[in-house]
Amino acid sequence: MAAPARIRRRSSASPVFVGLLFASPWIIGFLIFQLYPILASAYYSFTDFNLFQSPTWVGLENYRALFQDDRFFKGLFNTLYMTVIGVPLGLVLALLTALALNTPSRLQPLYRSIVYLPTIVPIVAATYLWRWILNAQYGYMNLWLGRLGLPQPLWQEDALWTKPALILIGLWMIGGTTIIYLAALQEVPRSYYEAAEIDGAGWWSKFWNITLPAISPVTLFQLVIGIIASLQYFTQAYLFAQTRLNTASGGPGDSLLMYGLYLFQNAFVFLKMGYASAMAWILFLISLAITLVVLRLSKYWVYYEGE
Amino acid sequence: MAQTRTGRDVAVWAPPTTRARRISWRKRLAVAVQELLPLLVTIVFFAPFLIMVSTSFKTPDDAFRFPPRIWPQPWTFENYRRAVDAMPFLRYLGNTLLIAGLAVLGTLISSPLVAYSLAKIRWRGRSALFILILSTMMLPPQVTMIPIYILWNKTPFMGTFWPLIVPNFLGSAFFIFLLRQFFMGVPNDLLDAARLDGASELRIYIGIVLPLARPALATVAIFTFVWAWADFLNPLIYLNDPKMYTLSIGLYSFFSEHGIEWGPLMAACTIFSLPLILLFMVAQKQFLEGISLTGLK
């Protein structure tokens, strides 16, 4: 009597148990590398903690100190500069590149691959390569700018030009977004364009009234991803500001001191773990707020099929 | 009649020529734009690669010539010799390959397992788990970075490869999401038939689902490899013994010593990028499909 029951139980071992068993790697990872760190980070943000002594509770002191810290605001400003200028510029250029590549040419797959290629280059190699290209005296960029009769900025020395230099490096790496736009452009139904042509619509009118709305969901997704990534901006600024002494520097006049870079300095150079944790939480709140605002505003310019 | 025809011909012939010529001129311009514009754009994106490779073959005098020339005069391999000698290049290469290889192994073991649970095992709570996994992608890594560092700092594994490798064996939210979407497309009938035959979930997973998912697994493996290969922040935080450096960190410390020597530096950058560029050329399809599949770069 007991045997069949056991067999039945084994063959249909409770699905919740099997499901959790299969999902267990992530669940374990979540508990150790997400949930615990989130709670610990929130706690540290209310403490004074230098890694060697145990944390001492200071209440809201870290948050209060942050709002009187000029470098905190400098980092915030630099990061918002990269986000407000760099992200939209990247999207516009990715779309223009996609439009340029969206031709029936037989070489199109080759073009597409080459435009994507810069995103494969390791960030360290890419940043050093651009430090060479943007070298004020010997670099190619200023050579060409000079030939075109344009000003030749000191990309790495002039605090006004370091962030545009980083944006330029970012523009070289828009290949991923370009590929996504290219796929989206090819999915816009031909019949829309044909109908518009019958009505006598020109190139611009077709682009403005058909193409842009049709790809607007892609634009929204890329915008949100771009903003979140940009608010965490770190590696390129760190490497672009790197001097021969290898210390974490903010570049000329702290013009490259991104929020993420200052957070890194606080945590791993000054060993102010509590202060850095408070910065991380403020970053999270800023990202969340901006994302929500963008999503809320999206109903005015994003069109979904079937609406 | 012939004359009428000729006359008509002449009469009709003249205006259309101008029109035809105008049309063909316009058409030619359109074709030129269609063919030339993408070529021009592509050249702009490709130019930095040319500069990198050309500088890597230049002598110091040639690299600092102004105005610079793309074609090195003379060609030299000296920069490559110096780059490989200056950092224990083979060691860094070995470290990077080991870390990236284990990251791929870990991701391939863990992520599809979790994705299968979310897509194909019918259990209460799986949609809640899915939402939880998605929402963890929203959290900036800076929030968890410090406590995770402090956690590793309490173990004897600080300064080893373990902090870089272990998380991969616990699944990545992004790849779990990607694979779950792929598994959803596997027909349930197939799995239910196997279940009726008494096959266990593990058997169905290994015997049926994984072989079907080979293209998605290839995409996951390639992206994991590329990210681990190029990662900078984590090795920067966790590796402090120069013998353990990856190529990223090796190149970073190479710059602090040889920052002004652009020839050797560009040679090092070229060697560092080349494996990924070769991988891309071999596996273009998986790369581009992965991007279109997820909307992520």
Description:
Chain A has 307 residues and is mainly α. Chain A has a single domain, classed as MetI-like fold. In chain A, 68% of the residues lie in helices and 1% in strands. Chain A is built from 15 helices and two strands. Chain A has helices at 2-11, 15-44, 61-66, 70-101, 108-116, 123-133, 140-147, 162-172, 175-187, 190-198, 203-214, 216-231, 235-240, 259-269, 273-297, and strands at residues 47-48, 56-57. Chain A has a two-stranded antiparallel ribbon. In chain A, helix 4 (70-101) packs parallel to helix 8 (162-172) and helix 14 packs antiparallel against helix 15 (273-297). Chain B is flat, with a radius of gyration of 29 Å. Residues 1-16 of chain B have low confidence and may be disordered. Chain B is an all-alpha fold and 297 residues long. Chain B has helices at residues 2-56, 60-63, 78-86, 89-120, 126-136, 141-153, 162-165, 173-184, 188-196, 201-212, 214-230, 233-238, 247-258, 262-282, 284-294. Chain B folds into two domains: 2-56; 87-294, MetI-like fold, CATH 1.10.3720.10. Chains A and B meet through helix 2, helix 4, helix 5, helix 6 and helix 9 of A and helix 1, helix 4, helix 5, helix 6 and helix 11 of B.
